[in-house]
Design a protein that fits this description.
heterotrimer, A mainly alpha (299), B alpha/beta (260), C mainly alpha (284), A: 299 residues, mainly alpha, MetI-like fold, C: 284 residues, two-stranded antiparallel sheet, 11 helices
Chain lengths: 299, 260, 284
Amino acid sequence: MTSGTRRTGIEKAMKTVLLISALASVLIVLLIFIFTMKEATPAFREIGVWKMLSDTTWRPGNDQFGILAMIAGSGLVTLGAVLIGVPLALGTAVFLSEIAPCWIAGIVRPSIELLAGIPSVVYGLFGMVVLVPLVRTIPAPGNAGYGLLAASIVLAVMILPTIANISEFAIRSVPKGYKEGSLALGATKWETISRVIIPAAKPGIISAVVLGLGRALGETIAMIMVIGNSVILPTAITDNPLSIFLSRARTLTGNIAVEISYATGIHESALFATGVVLFILIMLVNGSARFLMKMGVKS
Amino acid sequence: MEAERAEKTRMMTEDYSLFYGDFKALNNINIKIPTNKITAFIGPSGCGKSTLLRSFNRMNDLIPGVTTAGTIFLDGRNVAREDVVELRKKVGMVFQRPNPFPKSIFDNVAYGPRLHGTKNRSDLAVIVEKSLKRAALWEEVKDDLHKSGMSLSGGQQQRLCIARAIAIEPEVILMDEPASALDPVATLKIEELMNVLKRNYTIAIVTHNMQQAGRVSDYTAFMLTDEKRAGNLIELGPTKQIFTTPSDSRTEDYISGRFG
Amino acid sequence: MKKRNAAQNTAFGVFWLTGAVAVLIMGFVVGYIMVKGLPGITADFFTTSPRGGLSGDGGIYSTIVTTFYMIVVTLVFATPLGVGAAIYLTEYSSNIDNKAICKLVSIARFGIETLAGVPSIIFGLFGYALFVSALNMGFSILSASLAGACLIIPVIIRTTEEALKSVPQGYREGSLALGANRWETTWKVVLPAALRGISTGILLSAGRIVSETAIFFVTLGGSYRVPHSLMSGGRTMALHVYYLAMETRAFDKAMSTAAVLVALIIIMNLTINTITSRISTKQG
C-alpha cells in the first residue's frame, strides 16, 4: 500500500515537473520580451518611437538614433536574397519531389542538408574572400565590393535549404489523386506539375518563402562580415537603379551586434529598441507564415 | 455467338503479363473489350483487375520497377508504341476516390480541352456544358460553375470527374470501382449514367460489387490469382451467361459466394 | 503535341539545372574552404592556443576547449527542459479533460513555436541584458550557455517529440496493462525505445552550438585564453573565425579554422544520418 502511494506520488510530481518544463519556453519568450522592452523603454521614451523609425541618422556620439537606414538595409538585403534564392530553392524543391531519379535526389538532398549545416560565420568568411572581390570587379565609382549585392548572394544561399525543404514537403503532401487525375486526362508531366501540383501546394510554398524571409531578417554574423556596415540609406551609386545593390548598408541585426559591447546609457537602450523592432518584425513574418500554413490545411 | 463475333473490338490484350520487380502480378492475359459496350472486371481483392485496367492507359508507367510482356492494342495499334499523352487522351479514366482538382467546376472540366489546344472561352463553355450534361450534372451545378469542385458531394464529385474525362472525347473510359466510395443513391445515378454513356463510349469497369456488374455490364471478365499469386483471366463472356451458366467451376464458386 | 513536349523539355532542363546549381554551390563553398584551409592545419594547429597579436599566430587549442565546454554546459541546461517538455506534450497532453490545463498546453505550444522563430541576435541581446548585466555573471561560459540553451530548446523538443511519436502505441499499452502508471511507462519503456531519436536531436543541438556565433559574440567575451571555470569568458571556434577575419584580418588562419568547423559539421551530419537510417531499417 505504501509503495502504491509512493508510486502515485512520483507520478503526480513528475507530471507537474514535466508540465513546468513544457511551459519553460513560454517563460523564456516572456522574459525575452520583458527584458528587451524594459531596456528599450528609455530610448523609446526619450527619443520617441516615430522619430527612431523615421529618422535615417544614427550618430550615437551626437545622440541621434534613427534606425530607418537599418530597416532599409535589412529590407533590401532580404529582397535581394529572395530574388536570388527563391527561384533556386523552388526549382530544387520541384526537382527533388517530382523529377529527380532516386539516386540523383540522394546527392542533391544531402548537399542541401550540408548547406543548412554550414555555420553562418563560414558563409561570411566565404563572402569576404570570394564574393566581395568578385563584386568589386563591377565597374562603378565607389564600389568597394562590400555591400548589399555580396550580402544578398550569401543570404540567398543561407535561406535556400529552409525554403527548399519546406516547399518540397508541401509539394509531396499534394494528394496522389490530383496527379493521377491530370495524367489520365492526357496531361504531360510538366503540365501536371505546373497546372495542378504547384497550385495545390501554393499555401505551403508561400509559407516556406515567408519563413525563409524570417530567417533572412534574423541573420547577423554573415551580414556584418560582407555588407560593409555603413549607416547610410542605400541609394543607387550610378544611373542604373539596380546599382543600389552595390551600396553599403547595415542591417538591424548588425547594428545591435557591432555596437552593443561598448554602448552605454541611451545608446545601449537604443540598441535594445532596435532589437524590439527586429523582434516584432520577425514575429509578424513568422506569424503570417503560420497563418498561411493553417489556411492551406483548411482549404 | 454469331452476333458477338460481328461486334467490333476496341481494345485487346495479347499474352499480356505484368511484373512488379520479380513478382508477376498479371499472367498471360488475353482479353477483348468490345466497342460501345460495358465490360466489367470482377474477382477477389488482389486478383489484378485494377492493375489490368491501369494497363490500358499505361498508368502503371508511374510505378517504378514495373515491366510488362505481351501487347495491348487500341484499335489495332500497340499502346506501348503510342505517345502516352495521346493514348490517355483516347483512353480516359475515372478513379475509385473522386479526385477533382482544387479548381472551379468549370476549370475542372475545361482542364483537358485546354491542354489539348482549346483556348477560346466560348468554345470551352460549350464543351463544359455538353460534358456536364452528358455526365448528368449540369442541372445541379449550372449556376455554380465558378464554385470549387471540392465543394460538391461525393457523388457529384464523381460525376464531375466523369464529365472531366468525357470533355476530351475519349474512345474508351476506364472506371476503377467508381462507386465504391459513394452512397447507394449516388451509386445508382452513376450506374444509370454508364448505361447512357455506352452509346458513345466503350467502357471498362472494375467492381467489387457483383450486383453492380450484373446490373450494368454487357460482358463480364472473371479474374483470380493462381498459386503463385499472379492474376489470371478465368473467363470472359456475356454477363448473363457468366452469372447463370459459367463455363468454369471457379467462376461459379465465386458467383455463388464460395470465394472471399 | 511537339510544342507541349518541347515545353516540358525546357522546363525540366531548368529544374535539372537548379538541382545541379544547388549541388555545385555546396561543392564550391565546402571545396573552397577545404582547399584553402587544410594546408594550414598541422598537429600544432590543434595543440597550441592563439597567441593574439596582429598576424593571428598560434593554433586553435583554447577555442576547441571553449567550444567543448559550451556544448556540454548548454546541453546540461537545455536537454532536461527540452526532453521534459516533449514528454509532457506527447505522453501526457493527449487525454486531459481539465480545460485550464488544455489551455496551458496550447499556450506552451505557441511559446515553443515562437521561441523557434526568434533570431539568435535577440537571444544574445537577452543574455547580455539578463545574465551578463542584471545577474552579474559577466561575459562568461555560464552566461553564453544560458542564452544558447534558449536557442536549442525548441530543437530538442521537436526532435524528441518525433522520436517519442515513433514509439509504437503497443509498447505503452503493454506497460499500462501491467499496472504501470504513465511515468513508469514513459521512463522504463518509451524513453529507452526513443533513445536513438533523442540522441540525434541532442547531436543536432550540439551542431547548432558549434555553428552559432551571434549569441556568443555578445555574451561570451571573446578571450582566446583557455577557460578555467564557468565564469571564464572564452572564444568558440566559430567566434575565432569571426575575430580572425574581421579584426586580425588573418584570412589563412580563419580558413583553416573554418575547415575544421566544416569537417566537424560534416561528421555530425553523417553520424545523424547513420543513426536515423538505422532507426528506419530497424522499424521498417
